[in-house]
Amino acid sequence: MSWKKLADFPAQKVIGAYGRELWALRDARVWHQGRKLAAADAASFEVVEHQQFIARDACSVFHAWSRLPRIDRNSFRQVGMYWLDRSSVYFEYETSLRPLADSDPLTFRELGGGYGADAQAAWYCGRRMKNCTRGRHLQVIPSNDLYASDGEHIYCDGKPLRGANPSRWRILNAEFSGDDEAIYFLERKLPRADPPSWRHIHGAWSKDSKHVFHMNLIEKNAAPDSFEKTCASSLSR
User: Fold this and answer.
1) Tell me, what's a Pfam family for it (predicted)?
2) CA separation (Å) from 35 to 38, 65, 75, 169?
3) Does one domain contain both 196 and 232?
């Protein structure tokens, strides 16, 4: 991440997607999406080129039109999807940049895939993972960062896979995973699935010796003996 003075951009503007003007200097004032930031110092104003809303001047951090005086400007920095200063960890939500409650920037680790953790807690895309009480042990699964483990639980999309055994659990493909006792479609367990006979068919379709599954639901009118990729493909159109 590198800050760049707004005055150093071509025409003193930052243009975003679809030609939209994000930041601009006009009449010695800072403008964001056509609205003037009265509290911003134009001479020192800086932005991160690929950030639409986060900026700073010599004294303060800004999010869009809002000055955020509680953020320490000098220690404020980006770490993956998260931001840190000397007192807290922050996450940018759709319309705001907010601190993560009780977060510790000294022990915080950005893990990739939206996961982050400090010595006491863990977060996924800014949402606290209430089931994770072993934040210091949380690690993202290298082959697919949708998943993470703290040694006691497996998480998918930040949610626990209920009953999954971390020592035996494995990723089966992009959307399915399982252990000796259960199969999961993302974070949802397939009901009454038989792991030894289970296999992936196509897309969100799978089967075992007794059932055909679409995502995590049993397809009651499908016979597993005859259900193959052509059937799944035609139903997926």
Assistant:
1) DKNYY
2) 9, 8, 27, 52
3) yes
Model pLDDT for residues 19-78, shown as the tens digit of each residue = 899 999 999 999 999 999 999 999 999 998 778 899 999 999 999 999 999 999 999 999
| Same-domain check for residues 152 and 213 | no
Residue 98 shares a structural domain with residue 145: yes
Whether this model's pTM surpasses 0.70 = yes
CA separation for the pair 36, 59 (Å, rounded): 18
Give the residue numbers spanning the domain of 216: 172-237
Last residue of a domain, one of 160, 189, 213: 160
In a domain? residue 165:
no
Report pLDDT digits (tens) over 215-233. 999 999 899 999 999 998 8
Cα 127 to chain centroid, rounded: 9
Q: Would you put residue 203 in left (φ > 0), alpha (ψ -120 to 50) or beta?
A: left
Q: Strand (E) positions, 142-192? A: 147-149, 154-156, 159-160, 170-171, 176-178, 183-185, 188-189
> Smallest Cα–Cα separation from 156: which of 146, 168, 142?
146
